[in-house]
Amino acid sequence: MSPKDLKAALRKERLALRDEMPLEVRIEASLSMADHAGDIIALDPGHVVSGFWPIRSEADIRPLMVRLKDRGARLCLPVIVDKKTIVFRELVDGVAVVGTGFGTTGPGPDAPELDPDIMLVPLSAFDSAGHRIGYGAGYYDRAIDRLRRKGHIPRLIGIAFDCQEVASVPAEPHDVALDAVLTESGFRHFRQD
């Protein structure tokens, strides 16, 4: 099986497990994530943190984002601007969020675009080495590559439930490993060699 086919199979399997989690369990797990990481994610006041509004059965990291904002972070959300590109627009109190494509929600076109220092990255699956499988469209991979070409190296923190961990993700040369992952069990750093 090719790496692409194996990733697709792992994505389907782990998203099905995530979808099976009862809503109440996902809510409690999401609140646990805020408790585990709200005070330990290293950031300086003014650091830009990209989060996301949950879609489908994703973890709801809005409580975590509030904790990070209370510590001085500037928040932004990803916004799909075309079939290959996401940008990160600033999320500020009192400004409405709008539908931004593919079921996502984010600030409208008048919001400033920011380059995140820390990216809270949704994913389908991850392994103990920090490799991740996204949703298959490559939005985050391209956004990370674009930021790095500008000389901006954001810290990448995967957001997932424990059930999304797999024994091994078939890493390809273009894949970027996570710096850490946050699940309902805790915050785990990965050693990057």
UniProtKB/TrEMBL annotation:
Record SUPFAM superfamilies: NagB/RpiA/CoA transferase-like
Name of this protein: 5-formyltetrahydrofolate cyclo-ligase
Pfam family of the protein (one): 5-FTHF_cyc-lig
Entry cofactors: Mg(2+)
Membrane-traversing stretches: none
Recorded family membership: Belongs to the 5-formyltetrahydrofolate cyclo-ligase family.
Keyword Metal-binding carried by entry: yes
Alphabetized InterPro entries for the sequence: FTHF_cligase, FTHF_cligase-like_sf, NagB/RpiA_transferase-like
Annotated keywords: ATP-binding, Ligase, Magnesium, Metal-binding, Nucleotide-binding
Catalytic activity as recorded in UniProt: (6S)-5-formyl-5,6,7,8-tetrahydrofolate + ATP = (6R)-5,10-methenyltetrahydrofolate + ADP + phosphate
Gene Ontology terms for molecular function: 5-formyltetrahydrofolate cyclo-ligase activity
EC number(s) given by UniProt: 6.3.3.2
Organism: Sinorhizobium garamanticum
